[in-house]
Write a structure and sequence with these properties.
Number of strands: 6
Radius of gyration: 14 Å
Strand order of the largest sheet: 1-6-5-2-4-3
CATH architecture: 3-Layer(aba) Sandwich
Largest sheet: 6 strands, mixed
Number of helices: 5
Bound molecules: ligand AR6
Length: 170
């Protein structure tokens, strides 16, 4: 099975896909950026599911580099896969944790049977990862990860992000 990687510029909460990946934080209880947008547009069912996860398997929160699924609420998707990217650091290489977000999200997508998955540029906003390097890790990891997902769609919010990914896709 080959996975097709596509790029679109836009809002990830407007995508029609099986699973939307959220650039969350360990608390799973919301935040700004993509996380804020997903909870706003997806509605309170997502947060309710996140609270259940915190009350059960993830009492201490979701560790960086891991992924877990909830309902997608009112989004045009079946699931939200929450993953926690690392904050960018100049004195420590956290690339493998960022790569792990993509690997683990695809693993969860496979468990769910998702065939189309939309990803944001994890860690490349509030967590400060330089966009060009975020694109390198995102595309390199997805290409190197065996998965039954048929389409991985990167949804880039602005032109600069889109161009960084497009330059790496060629
Ligand atoms: N659709 C697609 N991309 C978006 C959207 C959107 N609606 N909104 C922002 N982006 P960020 P992080 C882009 O900050 O760096 C939250 O508070 C954005 O321009 O959402 O992993 C969490 O709770 C950037 O390119 O995620 C965490 O605390 C990319 O998505 C923290 O931020 C990721 O930016 C996670 O920070």
């Amino acid at each position: 099975m080959t996975t097709t990687v596509t790029l679109v510029q836009g809002d990830i909460t407007a995508q029609s896909v099986d699973a939307v990946v959220n650039a969350a934080n360990s608390s799973l209880l919301g935040g700004g950026g993509v996380d804020g947008a997903i909870h706003r547009r997806g509605g309170p069912e997502i947060l309710a599911d996140c609270r259940r996860l915190r009350a059960s398997h993830y009492g201490r929160g979701l560790p960086t580099g891991r992924a877990v699924a909830t309902t997608a609420g009112r989004l045009d998707a079946r699931w939200v896969i929450h993953t926690v990217g690392p904050r960018h650091s100049t004195d420590e290489d956290r690339s493998d944790l960022l790569a792990s977000c993509y690997r683990e999200s695809l693993r969860v997508a496979d468990e769910l049977g998702a065939r189309t998955v939309a990803f944001p540029a994890v860690s490349a906003g509030i967590y400060g990862w330089p966009m060009d390097d975020a694109a390198r890790i995102a595309l390199g990891t997805v290409r190197a990860t065996p998965t039954a997902v048929e389409e991985v769609r990167f949804v880039l919010f602005d032109t600069a992000a889109y161009e960084a990914f497009a330059a790496r896709l060629d």
